Amino acid sequence: MSEIRVGENESLDNALKRFKRQCANSGVLKEVRKREHYEKPSVRRKKKSEEARRKKHRF
């Protein structure tokens, strides 16, 4: 979980912006979207192999 401390002279907008940036960098939102719905292990493996194939083809 991301946590920030708001400075004494820091505005709420700046603190919120720092929090959002920290969440994005730590991958929290990506993880939430990934776990939003249950995904069978076979589907997960299929997506992983398709992504690897796509990456390999790209380079």
Automatic annotation (TrEMBL):
This is Small ribosomal subunit protein bS21. PANTHER family: MITOCHONDRIAL 28S RIBOSOMAL PROTEIN S21, SMALL RIBOSOMAL SUBUNIT PROTEIN BS21. The keyword S-adenosyl-L-methionine does not apply. One of its GO terms (molecular function) is structural constituent of ribosome. InterPro entries: Ribosomal_bS21 (IPR001911), Ribosomal_bS21_sf (IPR038380). Residues 32-53 have a biased composition (Basic and acidic residues). Signal peptide: none annotated. Coiled coil: none annotated. The gene is rpsU. Residues 32-59 are annotated as: Disordered. One of its GO terms (biological process) is translation. The keyword Ribonucleoprotein applies. Keywords: Ribonucleoprotein, Ribosomal protein. Belongs to the bacterial ribosomal protein bS21 family. One of its GO terms (cellular component) is ribosome. It comes from the Bacteria.
